[in-house]
Design brief:
Blueprint (H helix, E strand, L loop, with lengths): L3 E9 L2 E3 L9 E3 L3 H12 L2 E6 L10 E3 L2 E5 L4 H20 L10 H21 E10 L6 H8 L4 E5 L7 H4 L5 H8 L4 E4 L2 H15 L3 E2 L2 E5 L5 E8 L6 H9 L1 H13 L5 E8 L6 H13 L8 E8 L6 H21 L7 E4 L5 H10 L2 E4 L8 H9 L6 E5 L12 E3 L4 H12 L3 H17 L2 H14 L8
Parallel strand pairs: 1-4, 1-7, 4-6, 7-8, 8-9, 9-12, 13-14, 13-16, 14-15, 16-17, 17-18
Antiparallel strand pairs: 2-3, 5-6, 10-11, 11-12
Bound molecules: GDP-alpha-D-glucose.
């Protein structure tokens, strides 16, 4: 296998295994956003992607897929349970989302996290060419930057954090807080979604490690007494705006949107929520507000329907099993109380759909509800905006989602404030087309200018100008 000048390291490879057997035929490109985001970059460079192929207890050889070298890292079922479901999704995920659910701190999970991070770092070190750039993705791999730097001081290392970085008062709960900070500081550039995340990180570094920080720079002491400058800065991620806009213009997808409206009984207004079924997304808060509006007589199920797509997620983590029960109880209560023979209050879909169907739903929706309690960015908000070539539709957007920093013309809401949320929903369903258009145009300008290509370019150019390791003072 040839060595690569650009190496992406992510928990998952950008492919799913579809058949028994080996070789490129057994793999299909996975639909994720990161894959689309990095595909053009990987094609331009001599790229390799290091990640878990999604099948436990199986070793795969590296292989070429659509012009990118894929380097599988194998995980045992036990490691999936301890490192992925445990430490990543039951410790770090809830802690970094402001402890909406209680994080569990288990030493065996941490040990597995260290072991698996080491395996990813070794795989990346083995495939990176002399002086290559390595871009590590997300919270499952926070220790990789430092491990990699120790093994390969010649590399330029970037890290992007897709989820929030919490305030120091919360972060400091983590028994392994120093190791995590030191792990991340192995990178030359540490990218966050929001300015607030980068400042939380810098503050944790000052408080915990006593390193000096100035603007976005952090002085990291080296073994030889010198310091190295690491950059911690916001690089808000985005979507492939043009491809959403193109899908939304396709006659078959527009026809499908009309068909969806028809099959819901032609309500005057369709409200839509699209989320992974996750406790960070505030699904219960939106159901509560909506249910009360019907109960109070402000909304009528003959006129209004809420479509809630809740795609299955992390179904082996206990908090997610419970959450699903709670949401499904709420949905069936509201529907039981208010449905008529011909109309339903909530059309609830615990399913995943192809992107074409998502865009048809975006086109059918008069109001998009994004009520996250905490969210790194929230790409769904941007996808809705990108799909509305007609400059119609209203986006309700939680101020706790990273997207709120850019989409100032949305109807911003605090999901904890149920009365405020109800007022905003009423404002959205009655908003005149002129105001919808003004707001939507302003938001569309943002997602057109700042698309995902601009995101990866700006991160990689910050990385290219970052100081190579160990050359300061
Ligand atoms: C993390 C951070 C940050 C969902 N259901 C289906 C489907 N989706 C797609 C959406 C969107 C993506 O999945 C979800 O992205 P989000 O950004 O909304 O949320 P997370 O999954 O929590 O992502 C988040 C993101 O990383 C990127 O940095 O924005 O804050 O939590 O693209 O459309 N897509 C299809 N069928 C579904 O059923 N095709």
């Amino acid at each position: 296998m040839t060595l690569a000048d650009l190496v992406v390291v992510a928990n998952r490879l950008p492919v799913d295994h579809v058949a028994d057997g080996e070789g490129p035929d057994a793999w299909r490109r996975s639909p994720g956003g990161l894959v689309t985001a990095l595909e053009p970059v990987m094609r331009r460079a001599d790229g390799a992607w290091v990640g878990w192929p999604g099948v436990p207890d199986t070793e795969f050889e590296p292989f070429e897929f659509e012009g990118t070298a894929l380097v599988p890292v194998s995980l045992s079922s036990e490691e999936v349970e301890l490192y992925y479901e445990g430490f990543s999704n039951d410790t770090i995920w809830p802690l970094y989302h402001d402890v909406i659910a209680a994080p569990r701190y288990r030493r065996v999970w941490w040990d597995a996290y260290v072991r698996v991070n080491r395996r990813f770092a070794n795989a990346a070190a083995a495939v990176a060419a002399e002086g290559a750039t390595v871009w590590v993705q997300d919270y499952q791999l926070q220790l990789v930057p430092r491990m990699l730097r120790e093994a390969r001081p010649d590399l330029t290392i970037g890290y992007f954090h897709h989820i929030p970085f919490p305030a120091y008062g919360l972060f400091s709960q983590l028994p392994w807080r120093r190791q995590v900070l030191e792990g991340l500081l192995g990178a030359d550039v540490i990218g966050f979604q929001r300015v607030a995340d980068a400042s939380n990180f810098a503050r944790a570094v000052r408080r915990q490690l006593r390193y000096e920080t100035k603007a976005s720079g952090i002085r990291v002491p080296q073994d030889d007494g010198s310091t190295r400058l690491a950059l911690a800065k916001a690089f808000p991620i985005s979507i492939d705006t043009a491809s959403y806009s193109e899908l939304a213009a396709r006659p078959d997808i527009r026809a499908r949107a009309a068909e969806i409206r028809q099959s819901l009984g032609n309500p005057k207004r369709i409200l839509l929520g699209v989320d992974r079924l996750d406790y960070t997304k505030g699904i219960q808060h939106r159901l509560k507000a909506y249910g009360e509006l019907i109960a109070d007589g402000h909304l009528n199920v003959e006129d209004v329907t809420l479509v809630q797509v809740a795609s299955p997620s992390r179904e082996r983590v206990e908090a997610y099993v419970q959450l699903r029960d709670e949401i499904e109880l709420m949905v069936s209560r509201i529907n039981g109380d208010f449905d008529t023979m011909g109309h339903t209050a909530i059309r609830y879909l615990h399913q995943a759909y192809p992107r074409e169907e998502m865009v048809a739903l975006f086109l059918a929706a008069d109001v998009m509800l994004v009520t996250a309690l905490r969210d790194g960015m929230n790409l769904v908000a941007k996808e809705y905006v990108a799909s509305r070539n007609d400059n119609r539709g209203v986006l309700l957007l939680s101020e706790f989602a990273g997207a709120a920093d850019e989409l100032g013309s949305s109807l911003r809401i605090n999901p904890h404030d149920i009365e405020g949320l109800k007022d905003a929903i009423m404002r959205a369903v009655t908003m005149p087309p002129g105001e919808q258009g003004r707001r939507m145009r302003a938001m569309r300008r943002k997602v057109v200018e700042n698309d995902v290509d601009a995101w990866s370019r700006s991160f990689l150019s910050a990385l290219a100008t970052a100081r190579p390791s160990g050359d300061e003072e």
